[in-house]
Design brief:
Elements: H1 2-8, E1 12-21, H2 46-64, H3 68-79, H4 91-111, E2 116-118, E3 128-136, H5 137-143
Antiparallel strand pairs: 1-3, 2-3
Length: 160
C-alpha cells in the first residue's frame, strides 16, 4: 500500500472517499455500479472510470463462471479433504490476483496522477469499490473554508 500512496505523492493528504456500491439488479453476482460519481467530475474522464468498472465487472463475472474446471477442482478438493488447496490456487483466487494487478496498474497509470487511489474491493468485503481523493496540502489549506466533504469540513479555530 505504501508504494501506491507514494504514487499519489508524499505532499498529499486524504480529502475524502467515494464508494461505488454493488449492483444487485441482476441478482447477487459480483457487479459494481457503473454510474459516474459527481465527486470525480473534473478529476477523471467519465469514459476512463466506466472502462475501469466494466473491466472489474468482467473479471468478477469470469471468476464466478461455473464450468468443467470448477467441478474438477471441487471433486479433487473433496477427494483430498481440501488439502489440495494447500499446494494449488483455485481459479477464483487466480482471477482475484488478476484483479489486484489490474487495480494496481490503473492506479499507477490513470488514477494516481490525478490524485485518486482505487482500493481493491476484496479489502472491503466485495461490498464497494473505494476511491480515495487526495489533495495537495498547499491547495487544501486555502480551500478548507469553501469546500465541504461528506457533510463535514475541517476548519481552523477563529483567531481572537
Amino acid at each position: 500500500m505504501e508504494t501506491e500512496l507514494q504514487a499519489v505523492g508524499r505532499g498529499a493528504s486524504l480529502a475524502h472517499q467515494v464508494f461505488i456500491q454493488r449492483d444487485y439488479s441482476d441478482g447477487t453476482s459480483c457487479r459494481f455500479q457503473v454510474q459516474f460519481p459527481s465527486e470525480l467530475e473534473g478529476r477523471v474522464e467519465r469514459s476512463l472510470f466506466e472502462d475501469t468498472v466494466k473491466t472489474l465487472n468482467d473479471y468478477y463475472a469470469e471468476a464466478e463462471q461455473v464450468g468443467g474446471r470448477s467441478y474438477l477442482e471441487g471433486g479433487v478438493a473433496c477427494a483430498t479433504a481440501y488439502l489440495i488447496f494447500l499446494c494449488m490456487e483455485t481459479r477464483y483466487e487466480k482471477v482475484l490476483r488478476k484483479v489486484a494487478a489490474y487495480i494496481q496498474e490503473q492506479n499507477q497509470k490513470v488514477y494516481a496522477p490525478r490524485g485518486l487511489l482505487i482500493s481493491d474491493p476484496i479489502q472491503r468485503g466485495m461490498r464497494v469499490i473505494e476511491i480515495s481523493i487526495y489533495e495537495d496540502r498547499g491547495s487544501t489549506d486555502s480551500s478548507l473554508g469553501s469546500s465541504s466533504v461528506s457533510g463535514s469540513t475541517a476548519r481552523s479555530p477563529p483567531v481572537s
